[in-house]
Design a protein that fits this description.
428 residues, alpha+beta, 4 domains, 4-stranded mixed β-sheet
């Protein structure tokens, strides 16, 4: 039988130097990128500065930890006949061996308390161990606040786990931390500790009402921030039929992108045999007919799609497009089709819907509505729309001129501005 239990750990100076050198090198590279690149966003700059600040705080702590000259017990080794204490310092390590038959008793005293400094509360723990032999008494202290440990009283739990091998082992607990006492009692009786939920609920009771509310809000915010994106991407059950339905739409859209409109409609026809009440399918059909210059069919498909808007799109559900705006695409295609057919009043109604929904920018909606009004001989109202469109284009071009994040496919160009000027002149 041979068992080793860790007492406490501290970083060696060599480890501190290596870790510090690596981190400083990484931070140096990030700082260089920050200083030389013009494409780094403000958010990334903030992340880099935060990392530099963190390193500036932790490296001195690591060095302070490693420069401790005091000798400490790092681990205990017990076998059938001996108990060995492994001492470490910045000069090296030594082993002090004791015969079990010479040990009269082993006593551990845990001091555990919640220290409050202003509004800040933290756990203070240390364990004093005394080993009484026939000839003398050996004492050492494990202080988790100055060692690398995730549990402040883990050493005492390890001692308890091998207590049957230690002669006359006893332990005592002092301090005001009742939860630690209950946790150790649970471990002694059942060999397992309190659950995280029980310890958390106990700690939660100590907080004032205001902090409970703030902590609760933080937890809820965290759950939402993590859970909501998972919800959007979670692979809900999709039937084989719906998968086939979506595959026809996607293939049809690929043909549409390649200007193969007849083949695109054939694929959409296949999809229509699965679901004839999906607004997204009708939108794609309307779009394809429109660009194939079949404006009457495009108008009919857009109207069918609008009549299905109250139902949830099967395509959007399968593809997890929870915030897809099919109505804007349908009304835009409807308005454009009505305009091509010369039904200007109907086109204006469709464009009115889009403007009321707040999607008038970067779609040329004001220009199109203005043209419809112009052909209805309502030139004064048309002029207002043209001026509105002109302002939108000017703001967009100005933004694109001075921003470092330019659109890959610009919405407007100087040619669009000249076109609007042409219509303005036509109204005067």
């Amino acid at each position: 039988m041979k068992k080793r239990i860790k007492v406490q750990s501290k970083l060696s100076m060599t480890a501190v130097v290596i870790i510090s050198a690596i981190i400083i090198a990484i931070v140096g590279v990030l700082a260089y990128i920050l200083m030389t690149s013009n494409d780094v966003s403000y958010r990334v700059e903030g992340d880099i500065f935060g990392l530099i600040a963190m390193v500036a705080i932790f490296i001195p702590l690591w060095i302070k930890n490693a420069m401790s000259k005091e000798e400490y017990v790092s681990e205990l080794i017990i076998d059938d006949t001996t108990l060995s204490l492994v001492y470490k310092s910045n000069k090296g390590k030594r082993i002090h061996q004791l015969n079990l038959e010479d040990i009269k008793s082993v006593k551990a005293v845990l001091f555990a308390s919640d220290k409050i400094t202003g509004t800040y509360s933290h756990m203070y723990c240390k364990t004093d161990v005394s080993i009484t032999t026939k000839d003398n008494k050996i004492s050492f202290t494990e202080n988790s606040n100055f060692s690398l440990s995730f549990c402040a009283y883990a050493f005492l739990l390890r001692l308890i786990s091998i207590s049957k091998f230690l002669p006359n082992f006893k332990y005592q607990i002092y301090g005001n931390s009742d939860i630690i006492k209950k946790d150790i009692e649970q471990y002694v009786k059942f060999g397992k500790r309190l659950s995280f939920a029980k310890k958390a609920s106990y700690d939660f009771k100590k907080y004032p009402v205001f902090l409970k509310v703030v902590l609760g809000l933080c937890i809820v915010s965290f759950i939402i921030s993590i859970g909501f994106p998972i919800f959007l991407k979670f692979p809900f059950y999709v039937s084989a039929a719906d998968k086939e339905y979506v595959s026809y739409i996607e293939q049809g859209y690929k043909y549409y992108q390649d200007d193969l409109y007849d083949k695109s409609i054939q694929e959409y026809d296949k999809a229509l045999t699965f679901h004839d009440n999906d607004s997204k399918l009708y939108y794609y059909r309307a779009l394809t007919y429109y660009y194939n210059k079949q404006y009457k069919q495009a108008k009919n498909e857009a109207e069918k799609g609008i009549s299905c808007l109250k139902r949830k799109s099967v395509y959007d559900n399968v593809k997890h497009f929870h915030f897809s705006k099919s109505d804007i695409g349908l009304y835009t295609t409807l308005g454009n089709s009505e305009m091509k057919l010369g039904n200007y009043e109907s086109a204006i109604k469709a464009y009115d819907y889009i403007i009321k929904k707040g999607y008038s920018k970067h779609n040329g909606i004001y220009l199109k509505r203005g043209i419809c009004k112009y052909y209805l001989n309502d030139k004064s109202s048309a002029l207002e729309d043209f001026y509105e469109e002109k302002q939108i284009i000017k703001e967009y071009l100005h933004e694109q001129k001075y921003t470092q994040y330019k659109d890959l496919y610009p919405m407007y160009s100087e040619k669009d501005l000249q076109n609007v000027e042409h219509w303005i002149d036509a109204c005067k």
